[in-house]
Input
Amino acid sequence: MSSSLEQLENHLETFIENVRQIGILVSDFQPQGQQVLNQKLQNMISNMQEIDKLRSPVQEVHVPLEVFEYIDGGRNPQLYTKDCMEKALAKNEQVNGRIQSYKAFKAGLLVELSHVFPNEMNRYRAVRELSDIN
Amino acid sequence: MSDQLFAAREMASSTSSFSPKSSPRGSRSPMAAPASLPRHDSTGTLKMTISAGKHPAVVNSGPFYLMKEPAAETELTGATNLMGHYGLEHSYSKFTGKKVKDSLSSFLPSLPGILDTPAHLTNSSLQSLIEKPPVFKEFVPLNHHQLAGFRLQHGPLPEQYRFQSQPEGTRRHRHQKKGDPLTPSYDPQSNNDFPLSSGVGLTAGSAGGVVGGVGVAGSGDGHEKKPHKKKKNDDERKKKKKEKKKKKQRHSPEHGGVGGGSGGEGTKVSL
Output
């Protein structure tokens, strides 16, 4: 997979370079450059054919749609990865906080209920232990 | 009176088992099941459990109402450091440690052109490509008649239509001092932007004209890396050597007296 991606990247670079050369050639066109321009146009089509052939090996690569929003906005797509990781970490910390809060609440509730309903809490603990064993 | 009593007896006999069928709520009525559940009670008293409906959401499993079985504990919860669990700590430190630049051009430094403008302004967005994918069958090389449509007139294009490899504000002048903060890797002898020197069959006349155009466009790409190794342009070398000679000739009578001049010359880009 990595080799096919590298190959695709190389072909894309070649294609972009070819298009850039066409742009420079056309910027200040000379009559002698017509043959070169025609050759470069054919090269462009052959590059596109090669890129099209490399489509199938990278079919399994899934790109999140939100990345395209970053790219279309002229932003670095690595910022999307960074934002995702930061959000994941923040959510992880939030859920951990909830878990710790619920644990503390449970412990406090058991203590207070034991003070108020000692017999019932003893029976509750006995039932829980029995269900845990089962 | 006797009719009422008869009706009451009928009702009592039909509802002696507290059937939910006779209840106005139907299946939602609680059912009495005296012997359905074992009771952990040694007092010998008869106790009944009441469950709601035929398929109750809460099944009485003990002496406490609404007591459910505890949820099955999973190994991976939010209490775990998920970054460490999935081996992403290094990636996280890489992205958060050093500052990631905001612009797209910093991610793709080797690409020519202006990348940082929003795509919707130029109708070249990836979103539009996904929403309306181009319809085509196959790529076919152009034939002679199709190539005839690409016959161009000679002469330079207007400034607004010219190929720009870099935004206007960051274009560099040809003669650049060393240690320029904006282009630390700029090397005028790198000749990355002289594509026509890489094996394209040009005549001498066209080479001179096109190279001139390339030189104008190439001087602005100081920040580009060298993705491909290219041959150096001999014409450019000769031009630069001539300019160097001219400068030496200009400064030679002042070389002994003016130390600043020689120092200044030393700080210029070596050609």
Summary: Residues 43 and 63 of chain B are 14 Å apart (CA to CA).
